[in-house]
Automatic annotation (TrEMBL):
This is TatD family hydrolase. Belongs to the metallo-dependent hydrolases superfamily. TatD-type hydrolase family. It comes from the Bacteria. GO terms for molecular function: hydrolase activity, acting on ester bonds; metal ion binding. Gene3D superfamilies: Metal-dependent hydrolases. A divalent metal cation 1 binds at residues 6, 8, 95, 204. Keywords: Hydrolase, Metal-binding. Signal peptide: none annotated.
Amino acid sequence: MWIDTHCHWDAPEFAEDRDAVLARARAVGVQTLVVPSVQARDFQSTQALCRAAGLPYALGIHPLYTPQSVEADLALLERALAEAVDDPLLVAVGEMGLDYFVTGLDAERQQFFYLEQLKLARKFDLPVILHVRRSADQLLAGLRRLPVSGGIAHAFNGSAQQAGAFIEQGFALGFGGALTFERALQIRRLAAELPETALVLETDAPDIPPHWLYKTAEQRAAGERSRNEPCELPRIAQTLASLRGWSLEQTAVISSCNARRVLPGLAAFAS
């Protein structure tokens, strides 16, 4: 019924109960979840976990991991994509992109890894899953220079104009836990007003918790933790349904159809 288009199910935070996390998601109708890798050393383990569970995955180098990545990692990515070219579970290149929010990252280095991964997506005719954090215009510039076959702008929080530019490039925009905060006015406005064909749902679990899981800085300092899970997707979707005036069933159908359109490999996971 539901597709979580962005879930780091392979993350260490799920090491102790990974199977139970997946079982809880499926129990509430999350049909499948897309698992994007974040660094070269995880490619094989992410693939192995996803193949064992029958989950779709993506391979890529996250911008936050570019400081410890080396150029040889791009060769590893190219080899991994080539070896998985006939794997029906491989659905995209990612998570990749640019992050100009986190301080201390080398912008030029990020750009290098971003553009090289766009080239690989073009070579293997795969869509991409983009990390977009205060970087929409720069990402769009790269896409105009090296167009790919669409994909998802994950956790989108840009302007309506930037959203339209991604849509023109064949992208859908990912909405998740941030949507559930009443003060997230721009995100909610976009979710309510963008064409329905542009919307996909995601959790980014274990990150970006919805408001009911969020812990304040004081709570975190006191040792309290919150871990997002893919089973939260239907409740997150209820916010989108309310904003659009849709039923929950409509929201599931529309968002899942959009996910399958921009990540064609998900067609194998049709309900």
